[in-house]
Specification:
Layout: E1 2-11, E2 14-22, H1 29-47, H2 60-70, H3 75-82, H4 86-100, H5 105-112, H6 118-122
Antiparallel strand pairs: 1-2
């Protein structure tokens, strides 16, 4: 029996393990090389935890754009990190805003972090003249 495994730490107390098991023959050198090439992508996928506050209709790329947005990057900087055009980033943000029911960057970041929008909070506050 041949086994290839990949372990990814998602949090201090949680490790996700991916096992590839072949019962009859050993893995070829080529198969091991391919696993080595895709392992970083698998690690990234296993590490990414979608926020439970976010709608499941958000695509992976929309989530990535939102996470970069939350770190304060501009559309051009996000485009550079994701190797896409700024127009693509803009389109991902438009789609994410629609799905989140927000209309600006701050509200999108608040939704990403599971916080209530400031406009909703300020409705209850009394204003002092």
């Amino acid at each position: 029996m041949a086994v290839l495994s990949l372990g990814v730490r998602r949090s201090p107390g949680q490790v996700v393990k991916l096992w590839l098991i072949r019962r009859e023959t050993d893995f070829t050198q080529r198969e091991r090389a391919v696993f080595g090439i895709v392992a970083p992508a698998l690690e990234r996928i296993l590490r990414e935890r979608p926020s439970s506050a976010l709608p499941p209709s958000l695509t992976v790329q929309e989530r990535r754009v939102l996470h970069h947005l939350a770190t304060g990057l501009s559309n051009a900087e996000i485009a550079g990190r994701l190797v896409v055009s700024p127009a693509t980033v803009r389109k991902h943000l438009e789609n994410a805003y629609r799905k989140l029911g927000v209309s600006n960057r701050l509200a999108a970041v608040n939704a990403l972090e599971g916080r209530q929008r400031r406009a909703d909070i300020s409705d209850d506050a009394d204003t002092v003249a």
